[in-house]
Write the structure tokens for this entry.
Amino acid sequence: MTGNGYRTIAFYPDRCDGCNLCVEACAEHHAGSKEAVHSRIRVCGDEEGRYTGIALCRQCSMPRCAMNCPAGALSKDPETGVVCWDEEKCVGCLLCTLTCPYGGIVFNAASGRVMKCDFCGGRPACVEACTRGALELKRGADLYNAWGDLEDLVVPGISACLGCNSELLLRHTLRRIGPNVVLATPPGCIAGVGAVGVNGKTAVKTPVFHPLLTNTASMLAGARRYYNRIGRDVTMLALGGDGGTADVGFQSLSGAAERGEQMIYICVDNEGYMNTGVQRSGTTPFGAWTSTTPVGSVLRGKTREAKPLPLLMVMHNCEYVATACTAFMEDYYEKLEKAIEASKKGMAYIHVFSPCPTGWRFPPGKLIEAGRKAVQTNIVPLWEFELKTGRIRFTYPVDDPLPVQEYLSLIGKFRHLDEEQIRLIQEQTERKIQILKAFTKEGRDGDETRVEGVGS
Amino acid sequence: MPQTRYVIIGSSHAGLSAVEAIRLTDRDNPVFLLTQEDTLPYSPTILPYVVSGEADPEKIFLKDEDALKGSGVVYRRGEKVVGLDLHARSIILKSGEILDYDKLLLATGAAPVLPPVEGLEGVSCHVLRTLEDALGLRRAMEGSRSAVVLGGGLIGMHAAENLHKGGLKVTLVEALDQILPGYFDREAAGLIRDIFRENGIEVLTGSVVTRVFEDRGRCIVSLDSGEERTADLLLVATGVRPRIGFLTGSGIDAEEGVLVDERMRTTHPDVWAAGDVAQAPDFFDSGKKRIHATLVNAVEQGRIAGMDMAGDEALVPHPGGIAMNTYRFFGHRAFAVGLGGENSGELSPHHLVEKTGPRYRKIVLQGGRLVGASGINDGMDPGIIAELIRRKIPLQGLEERFISDPLGTGRVLMSRTWR
Ligand SMILES: Cc1cc2nc3c(=O)[nH]c(=O)nc-3n(C[C@H](O)[C@H](O)[C@H](O)COP(=O)(O)OP(=O)(O)OC[C@H]3O[C@@H](n4cnc5c(N)ncnc54)[C@H](O)[C@@H]3O)c2cc1C
Ligand code: SF4
């Protein structure tokens, strides 16, 4: 049996502005009135106007309230994980309020009864009401279990390097997208790990082909048009490296995006030509060592910044553009889902940050940590753009980023960086975030002006 | 897991909590859960609501047969334990059966004690501890028009209110000069007493019963003031005493209750005790062992005992018992945690009293930390208050704010400290 994953509501104090929409929504949902007395969620704020947390049921795994209820009125539902309150059985002794250290079950002075969060049957009104992303419904292990139930379309034992991100990415991407797909993998690591074949056998259980570095997007466009003509809805998927996407293959990608070809194009960005000897590419970041941006007495790694490829794709009016990182799988799955939908209308582009233990020189066991740190330092901001809203939304906003050094020090290709270079990288990172933030402004109903040229 | 047979005597809060804790670590070994009553597990705390009719006596059970079986428990009801043989590691049942154990938990709770009042033995009186008591009291109420309740503790107060609501004319007699002394100070207790009086219950504090006798089926209670009260029904709620009779001569150390340490271990390695039967270290006076006969305490101690019995490495020793409770009466609500009743000693508390409502708040601080709080109709989170006390959280300059807004400040401290 796989373990059940329960839902919880996460609170991000930095995003909360104390508007109390959640409180009103909860009261409204449960009592038909916006009065705070009926709300099971309360925002805790200190005198300085900072928001520090929420008083809300944590749906504990071993709920103290339930253990202490003399009436058997509280119990944890093994299916949903919700700690349920049985109104009929409750005698109103208030002992539960004495045992909850979170203010999660409280006395309602208007009704004279205790009340607690019941998750609104699975779609909490508070989370839906929050406009600032301060409340999020977090799905736990159930997501992983659900993914585990999807068919793995990649054979066991492929030839990726130890700790390579490609295998994780390839397996999960195909799991989610499913077998109704045509996969294109231009020369690069994804093809190299065996996706297109070893000794006449392919490593994936779906149709797959091996375009040139230069023509991935145009070949997929042609295949899709053919399927459209015969009336079959098949997803076109490219998994190309950053070389095949940002450099050599860019003209065909740009053309396909401009024409609105229906496909999902995923760029597996390991920041260079990793399987041909670690050469620099257009997306190799500033300061990074590669075999063609060496570190010596004159050169100190790459002197130019990486191409902002995802933003370039936004400027192409793609249906959907997102950045992703396998350290944030939940986020990636959600983006894949949106990309599948968007690819029915036009181009969906996902740019996946792909740390490479071999070429970047870090221990294979540190893959996920590298991804986490890259996101937490804002080196790799996670965001998405939807043509229908015309704006960028951060899917994992990092308002209080770690210093870039926390990420850089993990990776061998940055080992030589001096203080000046690190300072520059910090600056570049902050500048890029500011640029992205300009694209997050409300473009439709809000009073702020729309970013020119984006969406139509 | 080595072969271990767990035996738990008592199927109420302490016992059930221990079962749950054992099962977190040890899924397989058998657990025998015994109770002398012929019912499924229930809480004595529910009984006032059975008396009042607010709780359906068929629906008060905390676990059913399936749930018990599902967690690998052999539930044996109607089995009274009469003896313990530490050397043979077995207990003796009233039926004569001998049941072996590897690890034994004593969770037999407490039973009412009758005060040494002349004539009390000779009259028929009620107590309230078991479901049978509650159902008996309910039946007795039907033919009665008046009642006297002895004892102004939580049980006596609950019972007095229920008898009153059942249409009886009620007198409550308390020997001390205030009701609920373990939880509330004189002032708060006075507010509660006044509400009882306003509702038509006679509350006599500082009044000692000198003699009780029966006259033509009615009960006459003589008081030290020289007055008498006549009632159809007499309920005695003057206190409880741990059920340790069956341990006499067994070699388990006991004073008032079974002596345990902060892991609920008795003086014998294979035997634990938890709940109302245990005399455990006190939170505020660690050298001292006390009985905190409350539900919350029984749950907590049962959990720790269960963890220790199963060898759970996550066990955090019990920080000591703290007096705490909630109390509903006539539509009002009250709670008390920690120091602040008549036990607050030299500490200077911060008070807020409004006679109308009424509303009452008391905050007791010591060295920048909260050590006690109580309230009547006051919006605080009792659970957050209890945790602040238990964890000895410094208020860090928020003392003044805490006194004026314990709800909001408590929540901020909670969200900063333990989320
Ligand atoms: C009327 C009433 C109201 C209360 N209200 C409150 C309240 O509001 N708040 C609060 O905190 N507490 C309250 N309490 C106290 C609370 O119920 C107890 O503290 C709690 O039940 C203690 O749990 P326990 O498991 O230690 O023992 P108990 O609940 O007393 O259970 C003892 C168990 O042991 C079994 N047993 C005893 N002797 C033997 C034997 N020899 N052989 C086999 N089985 C045996 C019994 O059958 C029972 O199953 C109230 C109690 C009463 C009676
Ligand atoms: S107030 Fe109701 S839910 Fe809470 S402990 Fe009492 S009976 Fe149980």
